[in-house]
Backbone:
């Protein structure tokens, strides 16, 4: 018998969510962010589902080259750029766009002869303090990039640290606008949160990440409120049911104590499949469409749930770990993390089924 766990990827949901970004930023190009194997959804699968995309953005150069080799002719942006002269040659040869975020990359562009000029995104650090040139260095970096002759086009770029929170983007936008005042070049600023909440940031090109997959970038606004639908549903079934008495415990370490006689369902899914091991007792799960709660520690291949709310449940009953009917963000919140992590953590051993 085949283990019943699978991840359903609803292809139409990807298109629906992509359209949400288009409606919010109607005058902007929308790049679909497909890093980390498209947030666990499958790079090739997502690319096939989005023939209408203005472009894709990723970190992995091999994935970008594969996309180009499939015949995708529009922009493919490397969000961390290149790391060696050999990669720079690949960027040029495969007609990839590249972020330029640091001195080392500028120096390579100044000293390495490329087969053809590349489309460059000059990244300015407006408060994230990861990648990018400080605002005071931005004009000098731009002048050097322009002087290399290696840039076919230049887009000014930043990434917001707090677009999803109460701080918003005001301070970051002030820094960016001060650093680029008077410079007439295209701009790419908005991530998912900024697309949905901060029209000031939309500019020429937006980058849709987590919202593409039907999860929310906000802690206080659900995906449903934003008009997003889950692209991934992680499904399984009950593979056993245990009847336990008052005072008995469940799972490793006996962390769940039964207060009364109860039925415990055993679900074929565990941390080796990508379910968060640190999910506590009470994390929501759907059994036959009814909300139940985890009971006991997540183990490598199984989780256990309290079947009290669904007395008709039996071996073979359908289980939804996240997705349709149970937002991944809600599961992530219960586990003290974010939906991004759960989607990206889907294990290779989990079969993926494409749903129209």
Residues:
């Amino acid at each position: 018998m085949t283990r019943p766990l699978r991840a359903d990827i609803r292809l139409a949901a990807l298109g629906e969510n992509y359209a949400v970004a288009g409606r919010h930023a109607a005058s902007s190009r929308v790049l679909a962010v497909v890093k980390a194997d498209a947030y666990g959804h499958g790079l090739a699968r997502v690319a096939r589902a989005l023939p209408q995309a203005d472009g894709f953005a990723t970190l992995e150069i091999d994935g970008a080259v594969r996309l180009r080799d499939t015949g995708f002719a529009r922009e493919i942006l490397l969000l961390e750029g290149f790391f060696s002269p050999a990669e720079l040659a690949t960027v040029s040869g495969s007609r990839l766009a590249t972020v330029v975020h640091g001195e080392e990359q500028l120096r390579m562009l100044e000293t390495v002869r490329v087969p053809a000029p590349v489309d460059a995104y000059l990244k300015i650090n407006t408060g994230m303090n990861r990648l990018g040139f400080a605002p005071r260095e931005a004009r000098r970096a731009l002048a050097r990039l322009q002087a290399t002759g290696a840039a076919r086009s230049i887009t000014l770029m930043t990434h917001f640290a707090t677009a999803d929170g109460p701080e918003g983007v005001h301070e970051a936008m002030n820094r960016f606008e001060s650093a680029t005042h008077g410079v007439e070049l295209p701009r790419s600023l908005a991530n998912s949160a900024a697309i949905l909440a901060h029209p000031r940031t939309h500019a020429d090109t937006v980058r849709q990440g987590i919202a593409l997959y039907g999860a929310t970038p906000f802690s206080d606004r659900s995906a449903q409120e934003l008009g997003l639908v889950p692209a991934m549903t992680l499904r399984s079934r009950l593979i056993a049911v245990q009847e336990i008495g008052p005072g008995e415990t469940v799972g490793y370490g006996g962390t769940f104590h039964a207060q009364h006689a109860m039925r415990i369902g055993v679900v074929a899914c565990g941390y080796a499949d990508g379910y968060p091991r640190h999910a506590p007792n009470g994390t929501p799960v759907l059994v036959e469409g009814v909300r139940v709660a985890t009971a006991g520690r997540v183990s490598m291949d199984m989780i256990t749930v309290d079947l009290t709310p669904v007395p008709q449940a039996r071996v073979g009953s359908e289980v939804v770990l996240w997705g349709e009917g149970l937002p991944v963000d809600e599961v992530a919140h219960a586990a003290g993390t974010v939906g991004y992590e759960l989607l990206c953590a889907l294990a290779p051993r989990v079969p993926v089924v494409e749903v129209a």
